[in-house]
Amino acid sequence: MRIGELSRRTGVNAHQLRYYEAQGLLVADRGTNGYREYDENALLRVKQIRHLLGAGLSSEDIAYLLPCAVGEAPELVGCPELLAAMRSRLRRLDSQMDRLAQSREALNGYIDAAERMGGESYPLLTGPVVGSVAS
């Protein structure tokens, strides 16, 4: 099937399919006319890629995982590369969540302090605070 048909059948636009191919996630043969030709396995492969992207994995991570992928969802069999990539991604997510939690705590502290001081006037502040957030 050509790229337009694969796009229609998967709901993924042709630009993204070409990107997947450039990243080594999807393979296409070239017909005598130069057009990309995909086999039926490409349908499953695109669905697997979409599910793994939805899990927050990068295309680089997915390149490691695809040889371990079975089925549409996909299920991932225990390849060593798979476990290492998923553990690495989980560590990155945990680190991001820690930073977000710290930012949230600090912001809540500023909000609480501002609410406690709400009625007082501040002579140094004669106009809106530069960079203030409107509610």
Briefly, what is this?
By secondary structure, this protein is mainly α.
Task: Please write the string of helix (H) and strand (E) elements.
Answer: HHEEHHEEH
- Using the coordinates shown, work out and report the CATH topology: Multidrug-efflux Transporter Regulator, Chain: A, Domain 2
- Helical stretch tally: 5
Largest sheet: number of strands, sense, barrel closure: 2 strands, antiparallel
Poorly predicted regions: none
Record field, number of beta strands:
4
How many domains would you count in the coordinates?
A: 1
Shape: elongated
- The percent range for strand residues is 5-15%
How does CATH name the architecture?
Orthogonal Bundle
Question: In what order do the strands lie side by side in the largest sheet?
Answer: 1-2
Protein name: MerR family transcriptional regulator
Keywords: DNA-binding
Organism: Streptomyces gardneri
Domain HTH merR-type: 1-68
